[in-house]
Design brief:
The protein is an alpha/beta fold. It contains eleven helices and 14 strands.
Length: about 325
């Protein structure tokens, strides 16, 4: 049996006022891009900090390459590359100098260090800018340098916290292209925290968190197909009354979100015609779409992804 790259077992963490994580369990397989999706307050930042050995969980355990993050933090760090949301490169140094100092932290010297720097700069497409200061780089290039920095010691697992923050669409595409190359050519496992639905769709598998609990786990395609039909959204001048009529007539109970009725139904386009004919003059507009990752979140939680206002305390430690 192949050992998971990351194993989370009944992991919980409690701050003074609330539970940030409650009995979360999942595994990240070798050579897999695994997405950790959740709004502010979902617990994903807390989980990221536990995996990167910056916090201790209240209970449960987390393993990286079979090593416990609490009992074997040094060994875990040797196997883990971390790219934080906040920039960690020194923009006054060149790309080479940033990687040189990172290599020293892991005991690299001489020829080995020079060869590794050259390999990493080539990997992220920065060879021609090796001797230029990072402050002259675009946001996407700086993020690629962050990625090279996290890979200097050849980790088996890469942890990335909101890696697309501040990047334009083109730079985001480049970042994901590099992640897939690392997965396919070097067998690296990557755990990516994100709140972006388009990034979630690019992951091999997803864990969706809400208020500290795991509410969905699987491939994006499997999670969307489990919804079981098209997503229908209805606008009406009196949505509460229409909800009751739809329930009575079709035995369907829509969810009322932001003043609109939402439900799933197979053959959505045919059913939408039937719905309009059943309630003439009561429907202002109706839309039919294939399920998205956000629809999965809505189905599992009963509210929209961005409806939460709570924040993960770990995301703002100085407040």
């Amino acid at each position: 049996m192949v050992q998971p790259a990351i194993q989370i077992e009944n992991l919980s963490h409690r701050y003074e006022t609330r539970d940030a994580l409650r009995n979360v369990s999942f595994a990240v397989e070798p050579a897999e891009i695994f997405g950790l999706l959740g709004p502010n307050g979902s617990g994903k930042t807390t989980l990221f900090r536990i995996l990167s050995t910056l916090m201790l969980p209240t209970s449960g355990r987390a393993l990286v390459c079979g090593m416990d993050v609490v009992r074997e933090p040094h060994q875990v760090r040797q196997q883990t590359g971390v790219v934080f949301q906040a920039a960690s490169i020194d923009v006054k140094l060149t790309a080479t100098e940033n990687l040189w100092h990172q290599g020293h932290l892991y005991g690299m010297r001489g020829r080995l260090l020079r060869e590794r720097i050259a390999a990493m700069l080539s990997r992220v497409g920065l060879t021609e800018r090796a001797n230029e200061r990072a402050e002259t780089f675009s946001g996407g290039m700086q993020r690629r340098l962050e990625l090279a920095k996290g890979l200097m010691h050849q980790p088996a697992v890469l942890l990335l916290d909101e890696p697309s923050t501040g990047l334009d669409p083109g730079a985001r595409i480049d970042l994901w292209r590099y992640l897939k190359l690392l997965r396919d050519e070097e067998g690296i496992s990557a755990l990516v925290t994100t709140h972006l639905m388009e990034e979630a769709d690019r992951c091999d598998r997803l864990a969706i968190l809400n208020e500290g609990e795991l509410v969905a786990l699987g491939t994006p395609a499997d999670l969307k197909s489990a919804i079981g039909g098209d997503v229908i959204v209805v606008e009406s001048g009196n949505p509460e009354a229409l909800l009751g009529k739809i329930k009575s007539r079709f035995n369907i109970t829509p969810t009322l979100l932001d003043g609109k009725l939402r439900f799933e139904q197979a053959g959505g386009h045919r059913f939408s015609t039937e719905l309009v004919e059943a309630f003439p003059g009561e429907i202002d507009s109706i839309s039919v779409s294939k399920p998205s990752v956000e629809d999965v979140f809505i189905q599992r939680t009963g509210h929209r992804f961005w409806s939460e206002t709570a924040r993960d305390p770990a995301a703002a430690p100085y407040n």
